[in-house]
Amino acid sequence: MIRFSLSCGQEHEFEAWFGSNDDFDSQKHRGLVSCPVCGSADVTKALMAPAVPAPSKREERPLAMDPNRREVMRKLREMVQSVRASSEDVGDRFPEEARKIHHGEAEARGIIGRATGDEARSLIDEGIEIAPLPEFPEEKI
Asked: Which domain of life does this protein belong to (predicted)?
């Protein structure tokens, strides 16, 4: 996971986590990145010096969220936990398994796993319904 410093056209600054630089670009292109303050999709990466603090030096950095956004995030976390609990994790075999299920070559079931941006685009182009499953920063700690 990579944490990017971002800013919107209204000059609100915020941070967000992405799987990679390509993941940010893909999500932005699809309109999935927006400012948590004003909702603007006019978001760009801000200049940021890389820094990885030692575990003992980490401090909690609260997200700037109003109570409604906080509730949405709570519900999103619950949804992600539910999807994870009711799905088979197929890891890097995700594209292959998704195709097998789509073509009736494997049992229809919920699966989760990993796919590159190109693999995900290929699945979507083939008419296979997939969706990214967010990972929250605290899940990596």
From this structure: Bacteria
The token pair that represents 20 in the structure block:
């990679």
Burial classification of residue 107, based on how many CB atoms lie within 10 Å of its CB (0-12 exposed, 13-18 middle, 19 or more buried): exposed
**Claim to verify: residue 70 and residue 112 sit in the same structural domain:** yes
Please state the domain count of the chain.
Answer: 2
Give pLDDT tens digits for 43-65: 998 765 555 556 655 555 555 66
Task: Flag whether the pTM goes above 0.90.
Answer: no
Beta bridge partners of 16: 4
φ, ψ of residue 124 to 5 degrees: the values are -65, -45
Are residues 78 and 123 located together in one domain of the fold? yes
Quick one: tokens of 28?
Answer: 């932005």
In a domain, 59, yes or no: no
